[in-house]
Write a structure and sequence with these properties.
The complex is a heterodimer. By secondary structure, chain A is mainly alpha-helical. Chain A contains 13 helices and two strands, in the order E-H-H-H-H-H-H-H-H-H-H-H-H-H-E. Helices cover 33% and strands 25% of the residues of chain B. In chain B, the strands form five sheets. In chain B, strands 13, 16, 19, 20, 21, 22 and 23 form a seven-stranded mixed β-sheet that branches. Chain B has a six-stranded mixed β-sheet with strand order 6-7-8-3-9-10, with helices on both faces. The longest helix of chain B has 16 residues, at 169-184. Chain B starts with a strand and ends in a 5-residue tail after the last helix. In chain B, 45% of the residues are buried.
Chain lengths: 353, 500
């Protein structure tokens, strides 16, 4: 008897389950995550409490949650434009870095400025830096038909080395004891915080505004319609007479600009200067955030909060449970794995005969 | 006369449709049994049940004298049942022999298989080179591969789902000869079709299905096409007769010396194509698939900047360099051969599919925003005026049956008031009711002074609706023939590439 695994496309593929599957994925992550704690000889219940509840049990914790969720949401909202168009920009980390270099560079150039225009200029250049870095894979794809997954990823490492060059080279703080970091930005170049004593900053407003605009763009505008058509079928998009190459550029520029903004917010907000490790992989994690949020602007806001929690939980787990903070990445990986799994099972019927 | 298959009270319900409703009939061994019905009548579901592809809700199948449980195609094959599908499942880049060995349920060496296939090809007259890649074969040859693949499993019963829909008249004749020979050698053939004449020509018995039920079981020799058609549809199809009110003075579209020179081995190069399309004229381009239809459509639609020489003149404007969008803005409308994923997006609602083709029109936009009221009411009008069977414009296009979706697409284009409508295979694979409706709509459209080009492999369709027909053969276009006093033998010669 030969056993065959049959994988069949479901004809009545459910929309409801499509939107519920992130919850299923989170549940499965918690379930299987508890085994990780058991293997480590820790009580799953206590561990989950430390991981997911205690980090946000005070105002400081909630502020930190938004500090982490803001860049994730902004980047993921930008990425959703590409992903809806079936363009796989996975170089947001590089675009974030370029945004930090461009915007931060302005802050260092005018380091004795007290002008209220300094911060807006930095924000503008942050977006331009990210967008500029994203046009390179767009150009390569439209001119030479290269695979944007490879080029955008490789450019990430180029951007990280450029940042390295600046902070150990020309932009190194002369008073910084030779450490690879820049001078701090002037006060006029720092992002205002929302509450004294907490790190939560006005980047949050940007995230909400971008979410709102994206919602309108996707549901009400011709541009959003074009993105969705191209995402479903490039042939239908050609039939409609949409210029697919232009759409590739626009979506790369939008997602690059968002990533650049997030990068600038990190350096002019919580960090305050440029150094090597400005981002704990926000650009990559945002890919998970975008898909977990079903490429839906509101969903992305929710999923960014959840994933931000894994960052905080990992820090607390390291402190109190004495386990490596990489556990946070394990949880992110599990969520993505189960999400892809539930999506697959929703789309295809698997049977064994 | 021995019964080989007996269906007993087969029922199968899908959400919202009863596909098979108490279907019972017998098939005689070593005969050709046709199943006739419109698309959606339930004939495909029935044979898929026989082939183990679909599980019935109720009922049973008797093979020879035994009750058969058929849960999978593998089980069907072990009972000697094989099926040739309407849509082929061949690997384009592999050779014929490689495709054949992939279809074998038992292990067999390539040399043995070659020998076996050669024998079958020679015996029944399949003209196949086992070493050529599938991509180089014509549609008819691909079908031969599918049939040979089935025959290698030594079937007792062969199911053929709409086998002639993609073939030329000549290929159909050849196929029928092969089928008759196979039956003489002991095979039983179940033949699904909605073409009446064919059924008269080929089958011994015919079962007519309508709305999931068997309406009659007949001996074919007592029937004629009209009586079968009447029983299939339950009413007589009335076709508006084409009248000739073409304005021969006014040119709408002229192609001057259109040629293409692609290096791609899978494209046919066009060779100095010339024609003039008049106002209110329906111009048919006949010919076997793969003779340049795809390339001609590419050039007329201009989706990919396909390179060509010569000129396309639309109402005194040279549109060579104009994009699809610009051409649409000049009121040229298109209906492509592929419905799902080309002229409609299956995942999107019907009203969104209106916008798909109408984004060049300012009434559907408010600045950069979509005018939803407008697209919804337009979709509603199309649904009403073109008899599209759907509960609402919010239904996803992919949920519609082929005929309904095609009526929707053609209705969408007609209602945009085009001056020129270009269609490729407008009635391919759809039910007879929709087909008749579409033909009627096209005829009425031409009577309103709109010019139409139809590219089609279906000669009957062209003869029914067109004023003039030319044949495309290996990239060259024949002289145009007037349909009113057409010389069929000449048309036949043109189809075979004998131009004068």
């Amino acid at each position: 008897m030969v056993y065959l695994i049959n994988i069949k496309l479901r004809e009545d593929y459910s929309n409801l389950i499509f939107y519920l599957s992130p919850l299923v994925a989170v549940f499965l992550t918690l379930f299987f995550g508890s085994f990780i704690f058991l293997i480590l000889d820790l009580s799953p219940f206590e561990s989950f409490k430390i991981f997911f509840i205690s980090p946000i049990s005070n105002s400081y914790g909630i502020s930190e949650l938004f500090v982490k969720a803001t860049p994730l949401a902004i980047i993921a909202l930008g990425l959703s434009y590409c992903f809806k168009n079936n363009i796989y920009n996975i170089g947001a980390e590089g675009q974030l870095t370029m945004g930090a270099i461009f915007g931060g560079g302005i802050g260092l150039l005018f380091n004795d400025s007290t002008s209220i225009f300094l911060l807006p200029l930095m924000i503008l250049f942050g977006a331009i830096g990210g967008a500029f870095w994203a046009t390179i894979p767009a150009l390569l794809k439209t001119k030479f038909n290269t695979n944007e997954i490879l080029t955008s990823l490789m450019l990430t490492y180029v951007a990280l080395f450029i940042l390295d060059y600046f902070v150990v080279g020309p932009w190194k703080d002369p008073a910084g004891y030779g450490l690879p970091k820049s001078m701090p930005f002037p006060d006029a170049g720092r992002l205002p915080v929302l509450f004294d004593g907490l790190r939560i900053h006005i980047g949050l407003y940007f995230a909400i505004i971008i979410c709102f605009i994206s919602y309108i763009v996707y549901n009400k505008t011709l541009f959003g319609f074009k993105l969705r058509v191209s995402g479903f079928s490039s042939k239908a998009s050609q039939y409609a007479g949409f210029k697919y190459k232009n759409l590739i550029f626009y979506t790369f520029i939008i997602s690059g600009a968002c990533a650049g903004l997030a990068g600038l917010f990190e350096v002019s907000g919580p960090i305050g200067l440029l150094y090597r490790d400005i981002s704990p992989n926000y650009g990559f994690t945002a890919i998970i955030v975008a898909f977990l949020g079903r490429l839906n602007p509101i969903g992305i806001i929710l999923s960014s909060l959840l994933i931000a929690l894994t960052y905080l939980g990992a820090e607390d787990a390291q402190l109190f449970l004495k386990i490596p903070s990489a556990v946070g990445f394990v949880f992110q990986g599990l969520v993505l794995f189960f999400l892809l799994g539930t999506d697959f099972l929703n789309k295809y019927k698997v049977s064994i005969s | 006369m021995q019964t080989i298959v007996e269906f007993q009270n087969i029922c199968k319900e899908y959400p919202g449709v009863v596909a098979n409703n108490n279907v019972s009939f017998k098939i005689i061994k070593q005969s050709i049994h046709a199943i006739l019905g419109e698309n959606g009548a339930g004939k495909s579901t029935l044979v898929k049940i026989l082939y183990g592809h679909v599980k019935p809700d109720k009922g049973q199948i008797i093979i020879n004298t035994d009750l058969a449980t058929i849960n999978s195609p593998n089980m069907a094959q072990s009972l000697g049942i094989n099926m040739v599908f309407q849509h082929f499942s061949l690997f384009e880049s592999l050779t014929v022999a490689e495709n054949l060995i992939l279809g074998m349920s038992e292990k067999i060496s390539l040399s043995k298989l070659n020998l076996k296939s050669e024998t079958i090809c020679n015996k029944y007259g399949f003209n196949l080179n086992l070493n050529s890649p599938i991509s180089s074969l014509s549609v008819g040859q691909r079908q031969s591969v599918e049939i040979v693949r089935s025959l290698l499993n030594n079937p007792k019963i062969l199911i053929m789902d709409e086998p002639t829909s993609v073939l030329t008249p000549e290929e159909i004749n050849k196929l029928f000869k092969i089928i008759k020979k196979l039956v003489a050698d002991g095979l039983t053939v179940i033949f699904i079709s909605h073409k009446l004449e064919e059924i008269i020509n080929i089958s011994d018995h015919v079962t007519i299905m309508r709305n999931g039920k068997v309406v009659s079981n007949l001996n074919t020799k007592n029937e004629d096409p009209e009586s079968l058609g009447y029983k299939m549809l339950g009413y007589k199809v009335s076709i508006t007769k084409q009248t000739n009110n073409v304005n021969y003075l006014e040119n709408v579209l002229s192609l001057n010396n259109l040629s293409s020179y692609s290096q791609d081995p899978f494209t046919t190069n066009l060779n100095k194509i010339n024609f003039n399309l008049k106002k209110g004229q329906i111009f048919g381009i006949a010919g076997v698939a793969g003779n340049g239809q795809k390339e001609l459509m590419e050039i007329l639609l201009n989706e990919n900047d396909f390179e060509f020489k010569g000129d396309i003149i639309f109402k005194n404007i040279n549109i060579n360099k104009l994009s699809t969008f610009q051409r649409k803005s000049l009121s040229i409308s298109y209906v492509t051969e592929q419905r799902l994923g080309h002229s409609a997006v299956p995942e999107m609602s019907l009203s969104e599919n209106i916008l798909l083709s109408m984004s060049h029109k300012s009434d559907f936009k408010k600045g950069d925003f979509i005018n939803f009221d407008k697209i919804n009411s337009y979709a509603n009008d199309v649904i009403k005026n073109f008899n599209v069977d759907t509960p609402s414009f919010n239904v996803k296009a992919g949920k519609l049956s082929g005929g309904n979706l095609q009526k929707f697409i053609i209705g969408r284009e007609i209602m945009s008031n085009p001056e020129l409508l270009i269609l490729s295979q407008p009635t391919w694979g759809i039910d007879a009711g929709s087909e008749a409706f579409i033909k009627k709509s096209l005829i009425e459209l031409s009577q309103r002074g709109v010019s139409i080009i139809i590219i089609s492999h279906d000669l009957d369709e062209l003869l029914e609706v067109c004023h003039n027909i030319s044949v495309l053969y290996e990239g060259s276009l024949s002289k145009s023939l007037n349909v009113e006093n057409i010389d069929i033998t000449k048309l036949g010669k043109y189809m075979g590439g004998l131009f004068d």
